[in-house]
Amino acid sequence: MKPTLIAAAELDRIETWQKYSSYMCGGCVSSCCTLPVEVKIKDLIRIGIVDEFEQGDNPKNIAKRLQKDGIVERFNQKSGIFTLQRMSNNDCLYLDRKSRLCTIYDKRPDTCRNHPKIGPRPGYCAYKPKEVVRESTGTLNSNSGRVPLKF
């Protein structure tokens, strides 16, 4: 039986993920930014959605407030981990739809800072390459992934 050719990794099938290399980030459509983002209180403080003085408050109360505000999807009381809400297309709340860049990059959570060293498949990435546009000159240029091939 012939193996099936996979053009890009599938987020839900970690066996399709590729071994991570730093060059991937510049040519990707930010597929890692569609994964659930787990954060702790210190991440929420860094992002600026929780004040430092709230650090001593009951995390369950913080979670309720952030769920009401549409920032947190769920809270695991046992582990103290919050999961950030995602947009309807599964993009992170902080991912710019047009540029596909993080709008809080300098303040991003530790989960994002440490990807792909940690996560569902450490050392691997759900890399999805940007589409390539063929211009009339016949040269290939990287695009943001929203324009189909032109001939």
TrEMBL record:
Q: Which Pfam families match?
A: CxxCxxCC (PF03692)
Checking InterPro entries in the record gives:
Puta_zinc/iron-chelating_dom (IPR005358)
Q: What is this protein called?
A: YkgJ family cysteine cluster protein
Q: Which organism is it from?
A: Pseudomonas graminis
